[in-house]
Amino acid sequence: MSCKILISTTVNWPSTARHAAGFALAGCEVDAVAPRSAPVTFSRYVSDWYPYRPLSAVASLRSAIAQSQPDLVVSCDDRAIEILLQLYDAEREDSLVAALIERSLGTPHRYGRMISRESSMRAARALGIRVPDTLPVPNEDALTGCVEALGLPAVMKADGTWGGEGVCMVRTVEEALAAFRRLSRPPSRLKCVARAARRRDAHWLLSAAAPKYRAISIQKFVGGQPAASGFAAWNGEVTGAVYYDVLKADGAFGPPSVIRRVDCAQIAEATRLIAQYFGLSGLHGMDFIRDSKGDVHLIEINPRATQGGTLPFGPGRDLASALASCVAPGAKLRQQIENDTVVFFPREWLSDPASFWLANGHHDVPWDDPLILRAALQDTQPPTRGTPPRPAQHATVPLSPPAIART
Domain containing 343: what range? Predict the structure, then answer.
């Protein structure tokens, strides 16, 4: 029995195409609902593409589901999760679409608490997971008391943001006040319209028409090394997981460029407890800080597929196969990455061509998906969907070329 996956995204991250490839190589048929310019739309592993339209987001997703008829929807960014939840709220409880969303997410009505950065940390603490003290900041008057309670430095976070945006370190009360004003208030209508034109992103027009104030929280700073988990879950049980330390990242809060897979009982237990408490199904991730003693502190839950979840490290560590097997037993395992150190392409290549990690880690390069490779390098504008034609069958390719030419 085969499994059909609908990949859902509202952004142009090349990593979304890696999720599509993972499910295809696990034996699934893969469709995508995405913006026209998103790299996943021209991945050779995507069978059909359905346009995502920001100004009619819920209708776009509903139409894609009706045409694709998937077994599962896998959301690859936070906004895509929010739209899926909006569609769920708009459906009758006994509808086929509501049943699909419940199958894809697990327990949709618990996601509101998980998406809130402060509420999710409070829930994790109640489960016995080690988390930094995290407080809601409803207004500027409350901020001073929060800073006094937590001390400085601290980390301020805005709900509804991702990819390192909406997170900043503050070292003084003045910095905290400035950060609160910047993170909580929407940009002016003029700035939103200008960004919509410059970035060709209609989401900014929505911000101009209906500005939204974000919920802000402040978290006690914990020094140490970033770590994370990417996991597949089914009805609250973890079916596959990858745990890793972040060896190098883009800035203090940006995405990782070099990771090392690890076995970590603390991360595994935290992952199990969160999946069980929120009744999760699908692909998710969690961010941690490993302190100087080696203990991990949970700092954030990602309610969607993350980049670390694209990597196949063998049985129990291939998330696409683990999730697909819940719907269609016998899903294929992808070729296993043997090196626990992985260099995400192309960030480390671009930042340091002589990097130690390039010589000693696995290069996570999409050699088998040439248009995604080109998009990741950003050397041209994204090609239009359908050109050049996609091969009829998936080719078998090596994990990396025998040699890499550097310029």
Answer: 225-377
